[in-house]
Amino acid sequence: MNPLLRLREAGQSVWLDFLRRSLITGGGLERLVREDGVSGLTSNPSIFGKAIGDSTDYDEAIRAIAEKDGRTPIEVFYDLALADVQMAADVFLPVFQDTGGADGLVSFELEPRLAHDTEGSIEAAVDLFTRIGKPNVMIKVPGTDEGAAAVEELTAVGVSVNITLLFSVAMYEKVAEAYLRGLERRMAEGQPLDGIVSVASFFVSRVDTAVDEQLPADSALRGKAAIANAQRAYHRFQHLFSGERWERLAAAGGRVQRPLWASTSTKDPAYSDVRYVEELIGPDTVNTIPEATLNAFRDHGVVRPGAVIEGFDVAESVLSLLPEHGIDLDAITARLVEDGVRAFQTDLDKLLGVIERELAESRAADTETSSELGGIAERVEDRLTSLEHDDVVARIWRKDHTVWRADPAEISNRLGWLDVVGQMRARVHELQSFAKGATDDGFDAAVLLGMGGSSLAPDVLRRTLGVREGFLDLTVLDTTHPAAIARLDRSLDLDRTLFIVSSKSGGTVETLSQFAHFFERTGRTGDRFVAITDPGTPLEALARSRGFRHVFLNPPDIGGRYSALSLFGLVPAALIGADLEDLVESAEGMAAACHASVPDGEDPGAWLGAVLAEAARSGRDKLTMLLPDETASFGAWVEQLIAESIGKDGMGIVPVVNERLGPPEAYGPDRLFVAYGEPDGLSALEARGDPVVRLSAGDVSLGAEFFRWEFATAVAGNVLGIQPFDQPNVEEAKRATKEILDAGSRDAPGTEDLRILLDSLREHDYVAIQAFVDPTREAAEMLERARLAVRDRYRVAVTVGFGPRFLHSTGQLHKGGPATGAFVQVVDGERDADVSIPGADYTFGELIDAQALGDLKALRARDRRVARVTMSQLVDLR
Q1: Is 857 a catalytic residue?
Q2: How many CB atoms within 10 Å of residue 190?
Q3: pLDDT of residue 1
Q4: In the Cβ-directed half-sphere of 238, how many Cα atoms lie within 13 Å?
């Protein structure tokens, strides 16, 4: 049985903490009511901010409003939001009627500016209750002293109230008393009580976040305060709504003011993602659940009836121990209320700014250049219809592994990227504090030691956002070339440099070799090192044994290439002083735009995924990314995501990034162009009939773009029948490398005639230049000249990658993708010096040579066409 339906049997109502128009108009809300027993809904300024600001649901309505002069942004907000609340109330009306008015309720929140204005709150709540005009609507009033006073009056005059932002038991008791007094006034005046409904929204997980920040990492009290606090509130609820006073009101038709558990998404990945649902099940309660948590509980939630009253003595013990550890829970809960009010006001202000901008754009009739898909347009439209029919987007959000395979292996445990942003939002303050601690301790530079998914997003963030004054300049080291290691070593003031050792598996040979070198160079000083890894990896054990400054444990259900918005991306982002709130917020906005309730044709992630896949199915499998110089590094991140996710089972999409745009005659019929902005020459390709996708011409919001491409890749995998979360062929080169190192004999083969390889090229082939050389700017420029020479002469796509970095990126595609690649391995002709690796019986030079030979062996084992040349031989190509 669906665990969500079992909650109802245990006496708990499930409400949805989310609302947007397409969820209603697309039938998604009705389905949640029908299939999951969802019996109510809550909203707030943050929810409406994402719904209106990050979707196209409201564009038509805003355009219509823009035609009327004089409408202010706040008036437009009410027009849009109240219409949604009214429509949602209609969906829940049958539930309301079937439960005799106890359930089927929809909540709308007062403006945050009224949080400390009793009279203003009363006036606004009465007005909104009247304007909405639905019997099953509640007005949300914040749990401040002024809000509590408003609750009594509103209850007395017949307005159903949801008291929100309750964190302390003392304030809970105050609003419960206010509700009781309001009922007593109505009864004294001969007014009916049975039409009044109230809930007290008691916030949970935010309490743990705030308390945990003040506790040591190994404290037994971590993760205990929030549930203990809620259990104490429930105990007071049982007392307040029993006895002679309550029985008199109940006899007159009064309803209990049910505790509503809010903020029940898990913020700390160390805790279960359904923790704040499972532990708070009890009679006469409501849990308003965000969609991601709802999906998680449906999948693996366990229902223990009466869980909220289990271990009450233990809960009291936890609360009594907090002061002994310096935790002032009253101060924390007071701060959380004010933080919540400020956050809602900030979100509302941002939303009003968005509405104002959209009104201005609509009135100016400013149209954005659209994409032109040429011959694949009809196929894309058909695919979007198919995706809608098969409910693919909704199933992705439900983490349904059958979207890709019947076997859940390496899928079910790789979908954490869908909701990791919410977890990261809760850790923003922690990450900012960590960065401040590093700067306070005198660090002004950071070096990230990592490969592939652990390094590419941090590199994008540094190159795109720069370094804020007073923060650490970040260098990403993703090579094993000895010249690069030595050059970086010479450039560093080791006393002022913080090293970030970043590896999901914790066993990446390149990363551990880099660490061994710099650990020795710093005098084995662990306080200059930070680890980012999954729980239980060798790196975690190493970091703790060596006394690292900090060990960040990432949620383990995220693959490396999907980890940009997790700790792998946000820890380095914090150190360079990036605006973490903006990164997280823009990612949340894109996630909202990709929501299951959005028609697939308007879903930016699903639409892009359909385009990528249908282009590939039509023979246009060379995804050519065109980016402005300031965001060029983003292309390398997309390259790994697409190549490693889609390049397998003999199929694939070949990303071509940072290629200078050429004339139409330089391109074959296998290109799909994706452009940020309008580079010179794009219109000529479009006129020829090449499909062109145009994305945001303004500033690229990295958080949003990271998520857009992750979601698009997942959708493309479904369309192409590919499992996008594993990398079955990456190990081939790693095994070959290990065999070479273990054998100890590293005699290199000679070089070969490149022209023989190039003369074998056919239409739809591609060339991959794999450069196991020192990754200097000069080398990059030489490789680019070679790339363009081959492209223009042979009319094939040409990719460029430095080794061993590309092994963690396009290496999967090279071995597992289509047999259309021709590979040019570029190696050093000679090497002036080498660098030893402490604890290893090989040097960095010997390691990179073995990696080149290992990849050569793996490619030839798959009958790939390969030529091995030196840089001078490549450059001599005419």
Answers
A1: no
A2: 6
A3: 85
A4: 11
> How many helices and strands, by DSSP H and E, does the chain display?
36, 21
The phi and psi torsions of 346 (rounded to 5 degrees) equal -60, -45
Give the tens place of pLDDT for each residue, 631-651: 999 999 999 999 999 999 999
- Cβ(307)–Cβ(282) below 8 Å: yes
**pLDDT on residue 150:** 97
Percent over 90 (pLDDT), the chain: 84
Of these residues, 50, 140, 224, 857, which one is catalytic?
Answer: 140
The answer on pLDDT for 392 being more than 80 is yes
- Alpha-carbon Rg for the chain in angstroms: 29
Residue with tokens 């500033």: 699
**131, 364 Cβ separation under 8 angstroms:** no
Side-chain-side CA neighbours of 810 within 13 Å: the count stands at 26
* Residue 194 main-chain phi, psi, to 5 deg: -75, -10
In the predicted structure, residue 694 carries a pLDDT above the cut 80: yes
CB 842 within 8 A of CB 850: yes
Q: How far apart are CA 455 and CA 307, in angstroms?
A: 43
Residue 146's alpha-carbon distances to 84, 110, 121, 293, 635, in angstroms, are 28, 13, 9, 32, 52
Buried b (16+ CB within 10 A) or exposed e, 135-174: ebbbbbbbbbebbbbbbbbbbbbebbbbbbbbbbbebbbb
Q: Which of 96, 77, 99, 76 is nearest to 88 (CA)?
A: 96
Round the average pLDDT of the chain to a whole number and report it.
Answer: 93
- Cβ within 8 Å of residue 367, ≥6 positions away: none
Write down the residue that tokens 């009739």 correspond to: 365
The three-class DSSP label of residue 133 is: coil
The reported pLDDT for the residue numbered 65 is 78
Burial track 725-763 (b if 16+ CB lie within 10 A, e otherwise): bbbebbebbbebbeebbeeeeeeeeebeebeebbeebee
Q: Which residues contact 219 (CB under 8 A, 6 or more apart)?
A: 325
What is the model's pLDDT at position 829?
A: 87
Which residues, in sequence order, are CB contacts of 286 under 8 Å at separation 6+?
12, 13, 14, 15, 40, 199, 258, 259, 260, 261
User: pTM higher than 0.85 for the full model?
Assistant: no
Distance of CA 651 to the CA centre of its chain: 27
